[in-house]
Amino acid sequence: MSKVLVVDDDASLRRIVEYNLAEEGHAVATAASGEEALRALERSRFDLVVTDIKMPGMDGMELLRRVKTASPGTEVIVITAFGTIEMAVEAMKAGAFEYITKPFNRDELKLAARKALKLRHLEVENVRLRREVARKYGFENIVGDSPAMQRVFRLVEKVADTGAPVLITGESGTGKELVARAVHYRSSRAEQPFVAVNCAAIPRDLLESELFGHVKGAFTGAIRDRSGKFEEANCGTLFLDEVGELPFDLQAKILRALQQMEITPVGSNQIITVDVRIVAASNRDLEEGTREGRFREDLYYRLAVVPIHLPSLRERPEDIPLLVAHFLKTLAPGGGVTIATEALEALKRHPWKGNVRELENTIERLLILRESDVIRVTDLPEKIRHPAAVGRPGGFTFTFPPEGVGLEEAEKALILEALRRTGWNQSRAAQLLKVPRHILLYRMEKFEIPKRLPEPG
Fold it and tell me: ∠ CA 245-247-250 to the nearest 5 degrees?
């Protein structure tokens, strides 16, 4: 139900307007003067104000200005018996939704009110949806407490409001688009469009049109003019996902668009100026692509003003319990579902080649197929319950970090992992590492690894 305030010093006309709007199902309040209307507006918020222009004391034009200053979202319809073009123009410039002259019929009034309230409700819904999207893509949905993820969060905070191009790298499923949206929604462009383009999913011969638009007749099937993604993202953010898949000949046009902030639709000679913040992502090594001649070096450096690398889930297993708790909460919002310690440990040991996306899909499947409100090891897929059955011979997999790793550092990490998996039981850890226990103890002393499980905190 919409709230409407009717303002008129003529009591009979005020009752007529009140009756017709109440008949439409609105909650209608009335005021006999501009001053009384302002007091009503201080006590309550209204979706629509319908006011006469000519009133003693504060007239309708002054009330209109005061309403739009105090509550810009409130729509205003002005009514007068002394209508002139100049007055109508003045009212519309001051923010009036509609200008009605007396005498008016009831249908004219109702139609104007319906249109004004529809606009008001659309604006309210738009604000709600934008807030919901901003919450959805906030940091609280990029889960991670590991040092690697904390570095990502700090980078996003620093770069978000600068306008600098950002290049996000990482394996598929690590959450590159989530980070791109976090950059957008933490910037001054948050109220403007976020437009995503998957460069790998669009056929090569249509990609230029998709990005820059085209004019009618530019190619077979171009039956009308069409705006491209650069125009759609104007004043906002354009996310170029899988940018490493861009055809080499199109990369030069992308580079020019980024340098000049100008685009030319396919089949046109018209240059269109745009204001777009670019965030790109790739699961390929673009530096290697530049060395091999597959990716333009100048475009790479234009995109990678601020590079952000997302670690794989294998590089941050300490985040798995947080992610599992997050997915249990979001995928089973009613609560009550927990996961047994043994099952959680099995999830932590899994290599997760599909990264966070694979983990989320696994939790969703477990929630659907579970036998009780406690997810146990027996509920897990075979490949997670018996990791030796997958991966390299013996089930052993090692992932090199992008910056490389020293041999002693790798050895220390392997010993720590064996101790962690066995609850710091040195005999069992030595069995896992296939060395005598005294050799393990010697290595632990060499790397200053404590012989007992460190106390938390």
Answer: 125
DSSP string, 205-240: HHHHHHHH-B-TTSSTT--S-B--HHHHTTTSEEEE
pTM (2 d.p.):
0.61
Res. 390: pLDDT tops 50: no
Question: Which distant-in-sequence residues (6+ apart) come within 8 Å of 51 by Cβ?
Answer: 6, 7, 8, 34, 37, 60, 63, 64, 76, 77, 78, 79
> 194 is in which domain, residue-wise?
159-309
Q: How many helices (H) and strands (E) does the chain have?
A: 19, 14
Q: Are residues 10 and 107 in the same domain?
A: yes
**Who contacts 260 (Cβ-Cβ below 8 Å, separation ≥6)?**
none
258, part of any domain: yes
Give domain status of residue 453, yes or no.
Answer: no
CA 403 vs CA 284, 297, 309, 311, 400: distances in Å: 15, 21, 11, 12, 8
Domain for residue 169, yes or no? yes
Question: How far is Cα 317 from Cα 332, in angstroms, rounded to an integer?
Answer: 23
Of the candidate ranges 61-65, 307-311, 377-381, 396-400, the one whose mean pLDDT is the lowest: 396-400
| 395 is a domain residue | no
Kindly report, residue by residue over 185-233, the tens digit of the pLDDT: 889 998 889 999 999 999 888 999 999 999 998 888 888 899 999 999 9
Residue 276 has pLDDT above 90, yes or no: yes
Structure-token pair, residue 448: 């200053």
Cβ atoms of 311 and 169 closer than 8 Å: no
